[in-house]
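User:
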Amino acid sequence: MKTIVIAGNYNEKAIQMFQQLCPAGFRCEIVGVPGDDELISITENADYLFLRGRVNIPDRLLENAKKLRLMQKWGAGFDQYNMEQIGRYNIPFMNCAGVNSIQVSEMTVALILALYRRILPVSQDMKQGIWSKERYLPDCRTIHGKLVGIVGIGNIGRRVAKLVQAFGARVQYHDAFRLSPEQEQDLGVTYIDFDTLMQTSDIVTLHVPLLPSTEHLINRATLAAMKPSAVLINAARGEIVSETDLYEALVNQTIAGAALDVLEDEEHQSQATNPLFTLSNVVITPHMGASTDEVLQAMVERCYENMLGVEHGTIKPELYQNYRFFTQVS
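Assistant: Predicted structure:
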């Protein structure tokens, strides 16, 4: 019987699904987030390792896990792990690309609406018996007729494009890899350079991975280029935005508002440590864009699907796109 080690923080329903859907001939060992020595010991004879969140992967683990055929990441992001390190050991590493695109795209639109319609402060007023409809009316906006700038037109960015178009918005995008003319026509989007996107968009929404080239992509200079009436949405990775520069831009009314599902430091957050929490023109949620009940089974199924593809030899790098495969780094 082959062993699957499942490491990371999972809720009880996800754990139950891993156990219920575990393929015949495999044994699931759910270990939470153990210390380095314990995880090294647990994975020494493992055939597969599933990961979620910031599980530390020391070199000794990769050296000792001689049977390990795949490291499978829950979710689409892979920035929590040192891919160069993993690549040195020539261990396949796969993610669940596209599985959560519906959830994150819906969350993006929810963030826009929460910010544009001032839903949170209005709700708080209502709970205190304050009818503040007229008070907030001058600050409320509609998506219809706005120009939405999408930075990153992958699985999530494309779904966001379709959703905001349903509200009557126009869409422009920037990506390191431009779509084909046929894809642009099908999506109804216009390619534009990054600087022009920042200068002309009413809503800028971020859907790029965290890479050295995207860290603090949104900074004092890029925020200063935006329209004073524009808003920023980030449901990608917190480190893409310089929060210090964003706070300054919001306080100085360089831009009108921001909605963030991700933060630079998500482990230690409070009003005392993050001044963004004190601002009324900011909506902040706890990295829950992909967190819906519906996505749990799809994510578990994709993890097992990828694992079985490696087990049976049907997954080959040249045939599959929805994965990350890192070979040895020279």
